[in-house]
Amino acid sequence: MFIKSSLEDFVEVLSSKEPVPGGGGAAGLAGALGSALGGMVCNLTIGKEKYKDVEPEIIEILEKFKDLQRKLLLLVDEDAEVFKEVAAAYKLPKNTEDEKQKKKEALNKALKNACQVPLKIMEYSLDALKLQKRLAEIGSKLAISDVGVGALLLKAAVHSGKLNVLINLGGIDDKEFVEDMRKYINKVCEEADTLADEAYEEVLKKL
């Protein structure tokens, strides 16, 4: 499990020629880090007299950040697992027409499945961006820069997830699936960009 390894070990393997972890795992980690920064700002806001009026909302946001942080971190390892399925499908023989058909079906199934992990990274990171946007408005000003960093990491996670969906879509024959997925991920990116930019601008105004 990569998420149990040290930061040094993870980065070392990431930089090697090993197929996993790769961009998908890095995207999941970026999303988890962005969520964790939001959680930190919540913890630094809770208990402060100046923010007592918004404390109940901050506590609620914190719990959501914790959940998203956990989910995104788990996707680092999930991304590595689904890659194994794709790699196995590519290695199937194709000497006969029957083998070619079976390989095609296995590959399409594996690639569709592989799309789901980066898609989840995009969706969870988008959810976290919604929280960061609100946190930029009501979180402690002493840690407001961390809201901005978190928003930027989450924006990166969304777009990184998109790239990993797209590379899997390239090998899928189901045109309807591919078209629907492209439309959806573009929509997620547009919403993420808006939220991240708004959060970032709000942070800048308070610095």
Written overview of the protein:
- The protein is mostly helical.
- The chain has one domain (20-206): Formiminotetrahydrofolate cyclodeaminase monomer, up-and-down helical bundle (Four Helix Bundle (Hemerythrin (Met), subunit A), Up-down Bundle).
- It is built from 6 helices and no strands.
- The chain has helices at 7-14, 23-45, 55-90, 97-138, 144-169, 175-206.
- The longest helix has 42 residues, at 97-138.
- It is elongated, with a radius of gyration of 20 Å.
The succession of helices and strands, N to C, reads HHHHHH
Tell the overall outline. elongated
Question: In percent, how helical is the residue content?
Answer: over 70%
Number of domains: 1
From the 3D coordinates, which CATH architecture would you assign? Up-down Bundle
Q: Give the CATH level 1 class.
A: Mainly Alpha
Brief overview, please?
81% of the residues lie in helices and 0% in strands. The chain has 207 residues and is mainly alpha-helical.
